[in-house]
Amino acid sequence: MDEKLIQRLESAVSRLEALSFDGGASVGHGETAAAALDPSIIAFDDLRSQFVGRVRSAAEKIGGQVLDVTKFVEEAFEAQRELLIKIKETQKPSMSVLAEFLKPLNDVIVKATKMTEGRRSDFFNHLKASVDSLTALAWIAYAGKDCGMSMPIAHVEESWQMSEFYNNKVLVEFRNKDPNHVEWAKALKELYLPGLRDYVKSHYPLGPVWATGKVAVSAPPKAPAPSRPLPPPPPPASLFSSESPQASSSRPTKGMAAVFDDINSGKPVTVGLRKVTDDMKTKNRADRTGVISAGEKEGRVSSPSFSKAGPPKLELQMGRKWVVENQIGRKNLVIDDCDAKQSVYIFGCKDSVLQIQGKVNNITVDKCAKMGVVFMDVVAACEVVNCNGVEVQCQGSAPTISVDNTTGCQLYLSKDSLETSITTAKSSEINVLVPGAGPDSDWGEHALPQQFAHVYKNGQFVTTPVSHSGG
């Protein structure tokens, strides 16, 4: 019999024994008998014992700050377990009350974040990997496709990508020094991928399932209602709030909200509609034979289809990640309110220009064409992946710039970024432009090799770039 199945059965038996001794009373902090035997709670306990336990065991071998931050990870998963139990007994709250409901988990993440502030310690990469990974637990705040965050499974994967940069640094630094650190880094990754991701995929792929017909989460006590009703207060700032109330209220109404606004405006909903006569119906039209001509087919193929690309986005998600998607022909895109803890992800944009006015942690340009990106400083790296004809200009400093599977890329470096490490793979037509010696000097253009020669010498292959010269 499978070992994991045996462990799950033993866990269920132990819970039944505890319930029999307690006479069905609560077996934990607010944990009811039904919650103790719920398959999703049992699976979450298995996740904690198997994956969180591995991270804790590795951290105990290291001690110090690594153990301290690991305890916060353990505490955050415990807080999420308590929330999952409450969700099964609670009606879905409003967005303003949801932040208060999720406050126990948010408080743990805030306490853990303070460990990364101030002077950098020798274990800064461990701290950042752990703290950034806790953002994945915010999948529990998913409230629908219009809530401003990705689906739960995608959110867990994207959140781990933010912390993987620091986790990989731990692996590289201690690969030949201390196997305990390597074990800790691998265990931390497996906690989220596949651990938390597979759990969410199995039990909550569409988000939390709230109870029906039970008492809803109570909002904080309010003062007696005055003679004239006042507008509701804005929700408290939290890791789980994706944007400020002012930003959302200033946006034009769209989607189904716009439809209901038109209906409630009192105007006749059929204004501007034309009556369809019998001769206008498709089944009665002689010019519709059901055969598509070659010209009509070409016209359909050549016309752009924005429905497949999705709606354009330029928004800050979860307070950590700027998302710029499906921007077509926009030359004046600007991100001016950013900090070094945030990342920027640019996807599916074409014939547009984005300016990032401030220092950010990471920039990724993915599947873009004829796209220009101008940024000041980046803490980790700027990555260009699966693009065609892009221009990237660094006006400050960037430790690393990587270009992968890209055709046509112009990199403009400033004097502060001349020591940048540039990595290319499966890419062609990569040119790097550097400033001249004087203020009025022309930019110097350097083409990076895309062809290499491999020669077998002295028992190994020697690889050299191929340079071409021509008149």
Automatic annotation (TrEMBL):
Biased composition (Pro residues): 221-237
A single cellular component GO annotation: cytoplasm
InterPro entries: Adenylate_cyclase-assoc_CAP (IPR001837), Adenylate_cyclase-assoc_CAP_C (IPR013912), Adenylate_cyclase-assoc_CAP_N (IPR013992), C-CAP_CF_C-like (IPR017901), CAP/MinC_C (IPR016098), CAP_C_sf (IPR036223), CAP_CS_N (IPR018106), CAP_N (IPR053950)
Domain C-CAP/cofactor C-like: 311-448
Record's compositionally biased regions (Low complexity): 238-250
One GO MF term: actin binding
Gene3D superfamilies: 2.160.20.70, Adenylate cyclase-associated CAP, N-terminal domain
Coiled-coil stretches noted in the UniProt entry, renumbered to this chain: none
Positions of the UniProt region annotated as Disordered: 217-254
PROSITE patterns in the cross-refs: C_CAP_COFACTOR_C, CAP_1
GO BP term, example: actin filament organization
A Pfam match: CAP_N-CM
PANTHER family associated with the record: ADENYLYL CYCLASE-ASSOCIATED PROTEIN
Similarity field: Belongs to the CAP family.
The protein's name in its UniProt record: Adenylyl cyclase-associated protein
